[in-house]
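Case study: Probable beta-carotene 15,15'-dioxygenase.
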Amino acid sequence: MNGEGIVSTSTQWRGAVGRSTAPVETYLFSTIAVIAIVAFAVGGGAPPLAAQAVVLAVLVAVFGLPHGALDPLIARRIGLWRGSVSFAIFNLGYLVAVAAVVVLWMLAPGPSLVLFLAVSAVHFGADWNADRAVWLRVFAGVALLSLPSLSHRDEVAGLYETLAPGAGFAIAAAQFWIAPLALVGMLIGAVLAARRGRPWESVELTLAAVLALVAPPLVFFAIYFCALHSVRHLREGFAAESRGRLTVGITVLYTVVPILAAVGVLFAVSRGASLDARLLQIVFIGLAGLTVPHMILVGLDARHSTRTRSVLV
Ligand SMILES: CC1=C(/C=C/C(C)=C/C=C/C(C)=C/C=O)C(C)(C)CCC1
Ligand SMILES: [Fe+2]
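Here is what the predicted structure looks like once written out:
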């Protein structure tokens, strides 16, 4: 382990739990969330689904994808590749993982969607209470993804049916029943975060819960994912990598390549389906594919950081 690695992992750890003021994404997310909550609470109607799907696809591409684009740098920091040959192998492994998820989805869409929701709940829940028990984070993630089914059950079921025909209604129904309990866990998380000296996390958790209940599901997801989750990971990622132009270059490259692949898929497959159905499939099945190798790397990084910290103290 070199000195650079020690500095960067400890920077990331500080970024996650050791700050004393609210980070920039708290203000960004809170401002947008409050405007959306007020707009939809006073009776603002949902925009047409096709418009929501197009806006979501653009926002995810521009603001969401970059937060996973730092993966090659994380992999380098934790020693998964060093030269051009191991870099090529890393990229190949990443692509195989993405392709395996997409193929699995084609073969078994219902179980794949359930698995995707479960893995995403763990992934999103980790945005808060980083130094607390894991069940608190899982509750927050489960609540985040179940609350839309509590207030917009038919809409969510319709979206799920687009992704997993025949399974969407049952999954939305299950979430409808899970949501109240998960919400209690999420609110306990909000109280505990405040008591740990991170009141901004309580604000985020509360606003995310209200937004998930009030806004149309895709609007809620776009705001949470792009203004909070992605910005948080990008900020922490840039602090941990701190390699200047190389970091920016890698982020741009690894954002642009998946976008080009997605555009290719959009024009290449299922021309029979409507544009919004195709966009939703590409956005969410694509995210599922990217999330698996991304979460494996984040997990390896966390293990690596823990080991580095125990060496340091
Ligand atoms: C499909 C769908 C949903 C779930 C989306 C998920 C689970 C996204 C996961 C993205 C990930 C894990 C990105 C990685 O950073 C909602 C919002 C519940 C309701 C609307 C339809
Ligand atoms: Fe993520």
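For the exam, be able to explain this: Residues 3-312 form one domain.
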